[in-house]
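Q: How do we represent a protein-ligand complex in a form that can be generated token by token?
A: Start from the inputs.
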Amino acid sequence: MSDTILETAGLTREFRGFVAVNDVSLHVAAGTIHALIGPNGAGKTTCFNLLTKFLAPTRGSIRFKGRDITRMSPAAVARLGLVRSFQISAVFPHLSALENVRMALQRGRGASFDFWRSDRTLARYDDRARELLFDVGLTGYADTQAGELSYGRKRALEIATTLALEPEMMLLDEPTAGMTHEDVDRIVQLVRRIRGGRTILMVEHNLSVVEGLCDRITVLTRGRILAEGDYATVSAHPEVIAAYLGS
Ligand code: ADP
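Then emit the structure tokens for the protein with adenosine-5'-diphosphate bound:
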């Protein structure tokens, strides 16, 4: 059994009395790809917002690498190595793919821009940015304006800018949403390629992506954990089948 890297205890978020996330105790093992699935309105996005500190919990706690991050700022959490894709790294459409990644490298994990680095440092940023573009399959698009990239490639670029922050754990919010089959396959391969020793928690609607990619799955419905386990276990759960068919 691997070590837990991210853990919540009794995580709860209410919106004016409506309980969107209800007593969720989630354990994500280090080095795994873990999916958070569930019908619309199940509380997945709220959960992500709680984990990255964009929302404060009403009750409960969150630990990352053994540290209580419940009251930390989003920037402090990112500096610890828990980074949500697109969190800090919105793609700038008028900059090239390379410039976008270079900017993310310059900024680092929540640090402010430093425009006064030496030429040598800047050249290193460029080398690293090219490596990251290679990792996400965008080698041929370094000089293309981000706004001109296809939707699938934009998502790949967003992942590259997130990787620039060297996250130990990445949160991916529906990485394949709205993609063509071809782009979905590309993202699946990309996630496999970038996982390295990283932990990835993703919200994903496409169950074949979840099946092909994820080691462990947590199913949420109406804010609560309904089932947990590997794909075979979770997909055989009668209430999971009902929740999906009934949604
Ligand atoms: P999911 O991502 O699984 O579709 P969400 O986390 O977006 O679910 O939403 C869970 C529930 O919480 C929904 O019923 C949604 O309407 C409600 N909700 C989410 N954010 C807010 C908010 N800011 N104010 C009020 N209700 C909210």
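Residues 15, 18, 20, 38, 40-46 surround adenosine-5'-diphosphate (CB under 6 Å). The chain has two domains: 1-87+168-247, 89-164.
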